[in-house]
Amino acid sequence: MGEIPELKELYQRNINVTVERLDDKHIVIHSSLLDLDHSIRFSMEIHAASRTIVSGWAQMVRVPFRKCRETLHLAEGIAGLVIERGITRNLANVLGHNTGCMHLVELAVTAARMAAGVLAELSGGLVNREKFEALSEQERIDLGMPFLQNTCLVFKVDGD
Fold first, then answer.
1. What are the angstrom distances between the C-alpha of 46 and each of 2, 7, 43, 56?
2. Which of 58, 89, 129, 160 could form a disulfide with 75 if both were Cys (CB 3.0 to 4.6 A apart)?
3. What is the 3-class SS of 51-97, one letter each residue?
């Protein structure tokens, strides 16, 4: 292997996701994007048992164009969507394309992916990390499979 060249950073983007328990039936997922041009926050409330998005909202603290903020109302349109197969496409249809914002789509999809994992844990009665981490790797895979099937190599279903 050759020597690694010294690189000069041109740009950096950070995406962060947090999950909070709102009450016994709901969780809230917050995702945010921060870079030199953007500071965007996106949140969704989810009814855990049905995996249904109850509400969505967003905030654009910094954007390169004023017009970007005209897409904020679209976040409300995700209410009623379910965290299941096809959620990425459904979020893109509500938040994206030429009337939306690709960053809202990115944040919503990131939040939905995190929600899928957390909902898998909750459905198995795993309300704390210690209990989850005590499971074997196969038990964790089995727990996540209904939500994460074919999303990556770990959750690949043979024949697909």
1. 49, 42, 10, 9
2. 58
3. CEEEEEEEEEEECCCHHHHHHHHHHHHHCCCECCCCHHHHHHHHHCH
pTM over 0.90? The answer is no
Q: What is the pLDDT of residues 20-75, one digit of tens each?
A: 999 999 999 999 999 999 999 999 999 999 999 999 999 999 999 999 999 999 99
pLDDT, tens digit (0-9, with 9 covering 90-100), for 108-140: 999 999 998 888 878 766 566 777 788 899 988
H/E element holding 21? Answer: strand 13-21
Give me the count of residues in the chain.
160
85 inside domain: yes
3-class DSSP state of 35: strand
Q: What is the CATH number of the domain that holds 91?
A: 3.90.1010
Distance of CA 75 to the CA centre of its chain: 13
Q: Which residue has the tokens 């983007």?
A: 13
Into how many domains does the chain fold?
A: 1
50 C-beta neighbours (distance < 10 Å), count: 12
